[in-house]
């Protein structure tokens, strides 16, 4: 049975909000939506998970600055390459659709410039990418 999970697909240049998944093959559907062979889960504040390409850095995927900023704003100092998908997670670890509040928090984080403390952590995390760091310092 195919259902829709309210999610936010974050590409380096755009966002899309819904992911159709088959309840019996959710992992395969996420792999297909991200366009990867293997995915990893980045846990964020507010019971939000980001599914990301586990091999994004080594397979030549583009730096996903919007998803990286979102991760930093929501408590994870990780750098993301390629497509990311934000979903909600239950206390038991089950992937579910985003609530209205979670969706609003993600949209607000993606729409606003990062604050000074977030920029400081981004500069540290992205130090191997001096061009990006230079751009962040000019925000």
From TrEMBL:
InterPro entries: DUF3846 (IPR024559). It comes from the Bacteria. Residues 6-109 form the DUF3846 domain. This is DUF3846 domain-containing protein. It comes from Cryobacterium cheniae. The lineage of its organism: Bacteria, Bacillati, Actinomycetota, Actinomycetes, Micrococcales.
